[in-house]
Design goal:
The chain has a five-stranded mixed beta sheet. Strands 12, 13, 14 and 15 form a four-stranded antiparallel beta sheet that branches. A three-stranded antiparallel beta sheet has the order 2-1-3. The chain has helices spanning 35-41, 49-57, 69-83, 131-141, 152-161, 166-169, 183-197, 202-217, 221-239, 291-302, 322-333, 345-387, 439-458; strands at residues 15-20, 26-32, 60-65, 99-102, 111-114, 123-125, 251-258, 262-271, 274-284, 312-315, 338-340, 395-404, 408-417, 420-421, 427-430. Helix 4 runs antiparallel to helix 9 (221-239). The chain is 42% helix and 20% strand. Strand 1 and strand 2 (26-32) form a beta hairpin. It has four domains: 15-83, 3-Layer(aba) Sandwich (GIY-YIG endonuclease), CATH 3.40.1440.10; 95-239, no CATH class; 251-365, Ribonuclease H-like superfamily/Ribonuclease H (Nucleotidyltransferase, domain 5, 2-Layer Sandwich), CATH 3.30.420; 395-458, no CATH class. The protein is α+β, with helices and mostly antiparallel strands.
C-alpha cells in the first residue's frame, strides 16, 4: 500500500473495511470492533506472510462504520458475497450443496433435490454432503408418502391428458394431477415427509403399522403385504439416520483439521437425536487465521435466514468474541442459540467423531492434492521441453478473438497459474482501433494493451 492513513482519519468504531488494488478491485474484506486498531495492526513489521502479501497487493483501504459488532459481522458477510475477494476464506456458495426441497407454495407441493439460490415458499432440509444419499432416502419413502416429484411441465401435461404418469402405477405418487387424492390426505403426506427429514420418524412408522394391522383384520392380505413392504422401506430409510442421543435433541457439531494451506471442516446435523445430515468441505486458507477464526467464518457462511441454525451449535473451539456470534446466530434463528464447546458426555464423544471424520477427509484430500500437483508438474515440464523454455511456464495466458457479423469484435484472456485456472485474472477486451474483421490486427491490439499495462504495473514504485 502506498500511503498509510493517519490514525485520526480512521474511526475508533465498529465496522467493516475493504482493501482495494490499483484497479479498484476488492482484495480483502474484514470487520473489527475498532476499525482504527485493526487497520493500524496491518502496518506492523511482523505480519504473517499471507497478510503481508495482501497488504503489498493493495493500493488503498476504505471503511464503513456500523452501530454494533453484529452489524459489522453481517456487513462483512454481505460484502464478501458481493465482491468475492481473493484473500478471504469462503465456503462454497450454498448453491453447491444439495438440499431436499418441498415447494410449499404450490397447490400440490413437490419434493426434489435442489441446488441453487433459495426460493420463497420452499422449505429446505440440509445441506447434505451427497445428492445421491437424499435421493435414495426419498425413493424409499415415496410408497408410504406418495407426493409428487415430477416437474411442473410434466404435472400440467398429465393433467391435460387426464391420466397419471408411471410413478402412480408403481405407487410412488398419489396422482394429484388428475384428482386421485384429496387435498387433506396429500397435506398429511407432505407433513409426514417434512417430519421425517426433521428427524421425527415415529409417527410415520405408527401410521404404516396401524394401516397394515387394519388391512390384515379386514383380511385384505395383498394390501397388508404392500404396507409391510412400505414399512420395510421406511425402516431402511430410518437406518440411514444413525441414533446418537437418547434424548430427542436438535444440534449441529462442527470440527476441523487443518495445516498451513488448507482446512477440512465437518458438520454433523442432529435432529430429534438422529444424524440427518453430514457436510464436509475443504477450504483454502488464503488468510492467516486460527481454528477459532475459521469456525467463525463457517458460522458466518453456513447459517442464513433461509438456513437458520438449530438451538445448539457445538464447536471444537469458540471463535473470538463468542457473544457477538451468539447474537448473530440468534438473529438468524429468531430465538436464542447456545454456542459452546462440549466438555464431557455423549456430545463430546460426537464432536470427537466429527473431528476424526475431518482428519480422514483431510488425509484423502492431501493425497489427491499431492497426486494432482505431481501430474501438473510433469505436464508443465513437458511443455517446457517442447517449447525450449529455461523454466516451466508457471503462468500461462491464452487469448482469443470473437467477431459478430464483422462489426462487434471482442477478445478474451484466460489464465493458468501452476497448471490451474486463475479465474479472477480472466479479462475481456473490447477492440477499439480495428475496423471490420481482422483477427491478426485485433490480436496485436490486445497483446499490446495487455503488456503495456503489465509494464506500467511492474515499474510502479
Amino acid at each position: 500500500m502506498r500511503v498509510r492513513p493517519t490514525s485520526a482519519e480512521v474511526p475508533d468504531l465498529p465496522g467493516a473495511y475493504l482493501w482495494r488494488d490499483v484497479h479498484g478491485q476488492v482484495m480483502y474484506v474484514g470487520k473489527a470492533k475498532s476499525i482504527r486498531k485493526r487497520v493500524s495492526s496491518y502496518f506492523n513489521k511482523d505480519l504473517a506472510p499471507r497478510t503481508q502479501a495482501m497488504v503489498d497487493a493493495s493500493e488503498s483501504i476504505e471503511w464503513i462504520v456500523t452501530d454494533s459488532e453484529v452489524a459489522a459481522l453481517m456487513l462483512e458477510f454481505s460484502l464478501i458475497k458481493e465482491h468475492r475477494p481473493r484473500f478471504n476464506i469462503r465456503l462454497r456458495d450454498d448453491k453447491s450443496f444439495p438440499f431436499l426441497a418441498l415447494s410449499r407454495s404450490d397447490t400440490w407441493p413437490r419434493a426434489r433435490v435442489m441446488r441453487g439460490a433459495k426460493r420463497q415458499g420452499t422449505q429446505y432440509f440440509g445441506p447434505y454432503a451427497h445428492a445421491y444419499a437424499i435421493r435414495n432416502t426419498l425413493d424409499l419413502l415415496l410408497k408410504s408418502l406418495p407426493i409428487r416429484t415430477c416437474s411442473d411441465a410434466v404435472f400440467r401435461r398429465q393433467e391435460l391428458r387426464g391420466r397419471p404418469c408411471i410413478l402412480y402405477d408403481i405407487e410412488k405418487c398419489s396422482g394429484p394431477c388428475v384428482g386421485l387424492v384429496d387435498a387433506d390426505r396429500y397435506a398429511e403426506y407432505v407433513e409426514g415427509l417434512a417430519s421425517f427429514f426433521e428427524g421425527d420418524s415415529d409417527e410415520l412408522v405408527k401410521r404404516v403399522e396401524s394401516d397394515m394391522a387394519a388391512a390384515s383384520d379386514r383380511q385384505e392380505y395383498e394390501t397388508a403385504a404392500r404396507l409391510r413392504d412400505q414399512l420395510f422401506d421406511v425402516r431402511k430409510a430410518i437406518a440411514r439416520q444413525e441414533v446418537v442421543t437418547e434424548t430427542r435433541e436438535n444440534f449441529d457439531l462442527i470440527a476441523l483439521e487443518d495445516d498451513e494451506l488448507e482446512a477440512s471442516i465437518q458438520v454433523l446435523k442432529v435432529r430429534m437425536g438422529r444424524i440427518v445430515g453430514r457436510l464436509g468441505v475443504v477450504v483454502d486458507k488464503v488468510e492467516d487465521v486460527t481454528a477459532g477464526e475459521l469456525i467463525g467464518t463457517l458460522l458466518r457462511d453456513l447459517y442464513t435466514e433461509s438456513n437458520p441454525p438449530p438451538g445448539q451449535v457445538l464447536v471444537q473451539e469458540l471463535p473470538p468474541d463468542p457473544h457477538v456470534w451468539n447474537q448473530l446466530l440468534a438473529e438468524r434463528r429468531g430465538s436464542q442459540v447456545s454456542l459452546r464447546v462440549p466438555k464431557r458426555g455423549v456430545k463430546r464423544r460426537l464432536l470427537e467423531t466429527a473431528g476424526t471424520n475431518a482428519q480422514e477427509a483431510f488425509v484423502r484430500h492431501r493425497l489427491k492434492r499431492q497426486s494432482d500437483h505431481n501430474a501438473r508438474a510433469r505436464d508443465l515440464r513437458s511443455l517446457q521441453d517442447a517449447l525450449g523454455l529455461e523454466n516451466p511456464p508457471l503462468r500461462i495466458e491464452g487469448y482469443d478473438i470473437s467477431t459478430i457479423q464483422g462489426r462487434h469484435t471482442v477478445a478474451s484472456m484466460v489464465v493458468l497459474e501452476d497448471g490451474l485456472p486463475r479465474r479472477n485474472h480472466y479479462r475481456r477486451f473490447k477492440i477499439k482501433t480495428v475496423e471490420g474483421q481482422d483477427d491478426f490486427a485485433s490480436m496485436e491490439e490486445v497483446i499490446r494493451r495487455r503488456f503495456t499495462a503489465y509494464i506500467i504495473d511492474r515499474d510502479r514504485p
